[in-house]
Amino acid sequence: MSGNRQLQTQDYSMIENHISSCDFPETQQTLYEISQKQGFNKFECLYHDDNFDASRLLCIYK
Which residues pair with 1 in a beta bridge? Predict the structure, then answer.
């Protein structure tokens, strides 16, 4: 791949379609439950964006 290519209208459409039909992040509670099952015992959210619920920085420790 050479050089930079700007996104075209069809590219934006493909991205928007993916986000609206396939991009469903796990909830914080689900990640907590999965981590407990794998032996992690400390779980904390170091950052979250009140305006965008899916934006979080989670730390999981053993």
Answer: none
pLDDT digits (tens, 9 = 90+) for 24-50: 888 889 999 999 999 999 999 899 888
Rounded Cα–Cα distance for residues 25 and 55 (Å): 10
Q: What is the dihedral of CA 39, 30, 47, 21, to 10 degrees?
A: 140
Residue 52: both structure tokens together: 């965008």
List helix spans (H) across the chain: 9-22, 28-37
pTM (2 decimals)? 0.57
CA 57 to chain centre: 9
Count of beta carbons in the 10 Å neighbourhood of residue 32:
17
d(CA 19, CA 7): 16
